[in-house]
Batch of 2 targets.
Target 1
Amino acid sequence: NAGVTQTPKFQVLKTGQSMTLQCAQDMNHNSMYWYRQDPGMGLRLIYYSASEGTTDKGEVPNGYNVSRLNKREFSLRLESAAPSQTSVYFCASSDGQGVGNIQYFGAGTRLSVL
Amino acid sequence: AQSVSQHNHHVILSEAASLELGCNYSYGGTVNLFWYVQYPGQHLQLLLKYFSGDPLVKGIKGFEAEFIKSKFSFNLRKPSVQWSDTAEYFCAVSPRSNTGKLIFGQGTTLQVKP
């Protein structure tokens, strides 16, 4: 059982380049999330998808777009990368919005924008 | 605005020392509370959670946390740390009214010296 799988694990971009971070979960979860982790700031929510076919902005959505391709997959796209987007990106999934909701995380993608 | 504050950013302990990491949150309603751990090079893992009931909860690897509602706190404790506990620890809160929203603290890096 792989859980939440993210690709790639590492990426270096030049300013202005675009890329897509991939995330897939095999737990049949309804909800999926993208976070970024910066030193001293914890994890901040970029976008989330409460269910297949829906996406919503989180705390820091500027410069990003997302696609909930199907129930398993939720991708994050940087259209024109900026140095401020250098960060570690985590994808997470959860069963839904119920009382006992727990999020499960992938291993992360470490992105450097030069 | 809802927020989570972790008091210690970097803690250094010797093996067998006792650990207490502070976590306070600001939110007026009912919450779910979590501690996640991130070992070096790994993804975030759930350490323990509180949804309701006994405010003293036990998690994996001998960790426990106590929810004190009057103090809006959810401190993490371990009586005797091991070198393998070296990791970053995140406190997180989700409002019971929107359990898909997970708000993280800044994180505490724990370094245990052998």
Target 2
Amino acid sequence: TQLLEQSPQFLSIQEGENLTVYCNSSSVFSSLQWYRQEPGEGPVLLVTVVTGGEVKKLKRLTFQFGDARKDSSLHITAAQPGDTGLYLCAGQYLGYSTLTFGKGTMLLVSP
Amino acid sequence: KAGVTQTPRYLIKTRGQQVTLSCSPISGHRSVSWYQQTPGQGLQFLFEYFSETQRNKGNFPGRFSGRQFSNSRSEMNVSTLELGDSALYLCASSYDRGALDGYTFGSGTRLTVV
């Protein structure tokens, strides 16, 4: 069974602070995606990374894929209350066509 | 364009009953995947359909089944419901390559088994 671990599980911060969320596995991913889910809704795709060492930016969000393609991070600069939600990483392992999701990081940004 | 539509949004069923959930993907999307989301286990893959054929299957008992129609709409069925089946059931569609294309999720069906 392939495990995809996210940390931290919960994060409560003040508006304007920076934060980083981590996603790790012992197996190599062929691609990795980050989603954000708000209460009562389905996850929404933020980004897909496929190349080791790749960095992608989406406004104040920076996504990095590890060189060995076994880990990824999501960094949010100057968090805002609108960033509140459950952040999920999901990896497609080599040789598999489906996605394995981490359990997520619940982020709460207070004004 | 219209998103992924799941019906119903909420459902309460009794142990032993069966239930059918429906998913209409984004127009043009041919791949439909189903996930079960619970607080303890997170999102767990149920199955994926592409062009009316099951392309992948997760590690769930045979009580969980699905199908896809020629218009790409999909249904999943759970028979002999158990309390542990209470969860948010999410449907996700993608154009062709499943996970590689990135999923568009519906808002889910919240199933409560009592």
